[in-house]
Amino acid sequence: MIEKAHQFFNTKISAAPLVSFRLIFGALMVFSAIRFMYLGWIEDHFTEPLFHFKYYGFSWVKSASRFTLYAIHMLMILSAIGIMFLQGIAYRIAAVVLFLTFTYTELIDLTYYLNHYYFVSLICFLLIFMPSYVSPFSNLKNTQIKRSSIFILKAQIAILYVYAGLAKINYEWLIEALPLKIWLPANDNIFLLGPLFAWKYSPYIFSWAGMLYDTFIVLFLVYTPTRVWAYLTVILFHSLTGILFQIGVFPLVMIGIASIFFSDAWHVKLVRFFVKEKAPVPKQNSPSSNYTLFNYLILGYLVFQVLFPWRYVLYPGNLFWTEEGYRFSWRVMLMEKAGTATFYVKDNKTGREGIVNNTEFLNPHQEKQMAMQPDMILQFAHFLGQYYESKGMHKPSVRAEVYVTLNARPSRLLIDPNVDLMKEKDSFKPKNWLIHYKD
Amino acid sequence: MKKGLFYIIISTLIFTSCKRDKDIKNQDNFDREAMLKNYAEELIIPAYEELNLSIQGLLNSINSFESNITLQNLNNVKLEWQKTYSVWITANAFNIGPASEQGLNKSLNEEIATFPISESKIQSAVETGNLNFNDFNRDARGFLALEYILFNGPNTSEDSVLNLFTIQTNRTLFLKQCAQNIQTRVARVLSEWQTTYKNEFIARNGTDVGSSTSQLYNEFVKSFETIKNLKIELPLGKRPGQIQIEPKLVEAYYSGLSLDFLKIHIQNIERIYLGQNKNGQDGLGFKDYLETVTNGKELVVSTLKQWENVNNTLNKIPTNAPLSEIIRNNSEPVEDLRIELQKHTRFFKSDMSSLLGIAITYSSGDGD
Q: Smallest CA–CA separation between B44 and chain A, in Å?
């Protein structure tokens, strides 16, 4: 059994899909980094805010100067071009740099967390371990790589889609058609498609279609006879979400990446369309015992990826409300949630309590994200406590009154407004200062 | 083949799921364009037009005062100022398009209505005659700088202010140039609304970030929050780090007219929410829009109910003394208003945008 698995992973297959995946992914990374700078997001996201929300365990990651951040983005672009064309040790270095630069920019501020950024980070990570002896200049017809390389990329894509689909199997999404019942009519002015979005049955159709698409699309992409149709569906689906929602480059990323399921011949054609063959057949590493270890690592990675999104079952209460175990689980565009958070800082010597004007410290995006996510509320409370202590307040306590609306329901308190948040610490443990949602 | 089957399964599922669900809300198609048209034609442009006229009246009174510095003429200027500033409050939530931040210019509200003003900056401008109303010193120009020049303080007698005008030759000049600066800025905004921007405003009928609905909504909320965060919490000493009440931080401290202006502001927020023009004529507004979306009617009911509480507490604030004095003597009625405004904030700030599906920030959201 184990032997068979190793054999499966070690089987030699064409290198073409990997080479073309690197070309497409690299090009998308270049485009996305340029776009990020062009939109002024280095300033908006990183250099202008006075305070950054941190990822749990990564509070040591600090933002950098404007100049450094531009330099890092340039480096990101160079390394993205590197993974497209380089080979050997140069490729490996480019992949490491791409992973580090991209992941660093993601870790600066939790506000901008997106499942797809996480996905891109994971892909960058996986690319570090891909066979480095191939490039678009190699003779692709005769160059082979072990199957595990392509397999893990495909598996990662499958996990993203299937989990995104499973997350949609819930009462509100399927039966109440929420939040699409909110989002679709808001787009009733869109050219040609507007009337469709305004139609009262559309939220139901889109909810079910979205769930079925996410859950099953990989199956249809894998199966050769349905592949072309499935890929057309990929284009249609992501174009629609691109039109409907403010989700930046991600429709393009997913459309690009899903091409990995096409045949070897197709990939050869694609690569040859852009790049001419130059080099002779590269020297290939012969299968060695290293592969066995590598295969176990792949297996470990996949087990983690499959299990980690289920951690939410360990927490009490409604996942959408508490968001404990919500991130890194491919829950995308799943709910409409917004909050108003008011912070009260009390001087424990004078007993005087003041009300914080959030906009003094946070940009609108930060405030919006913070006001509905408990761990961010806690972080901001700690920041406020420390800030006002440095301004001369005596051992401040900080409490917050946070009203949140979830999927258009009347807003209610998310956390206990009397709890001194300075006394609470973030951890993987359930947060006992949350007020659970009960119907 | 497989694909055909796939689509058949989808359609069957969709069909049956729709049939089974009896609770399909009828989504009336709300005409956002008509709402924007109402805002432009009945609220925004009339506010700027009235403001423009009123500023001309203010300037005329200043000219008369300049040529004949008498108490009566001074009081005329004060009245014109009060009238004009009241009109401005009905336009202070429309910092979009030509009134939004552009290049070196901040929003119109910041350019002509910043408070608290800097007494020392204004004093030194008057003393040196070094008058500049286009630099970064926004706390030394605008309506509330005019107020300081005209009233000097709640306890300054009319005669001593008049006396200041006769001693300080630049004081009248400041008054005039400051008002002219406001006029220039407002006239530009009005003319853009009258020529090109109105159509642009109505045409941007989506709910995305750049859309007029989103921009108007953002400014509406900002204007609403200003009432609580700046006009009330600051003088009440409610900001962390403030160790006592600071009555001088009320809006329009020098004239003592803070409460009148506060009432106009709160009333205007209500008019924007309802889509009502100054004559009380009701048109399409955010409230009407809300009533057409999922759970919107419930939200409108809760909003109006809480708004009544806001108005009740507002009307309980004594009117026999300036707001600064009331805060100094017994801040409780003002504190009550603060509490009701605090309770109200979520209805406008997050519930409304969430139900309407309005995008309020530029960054990408989480998507697939």
A: 23
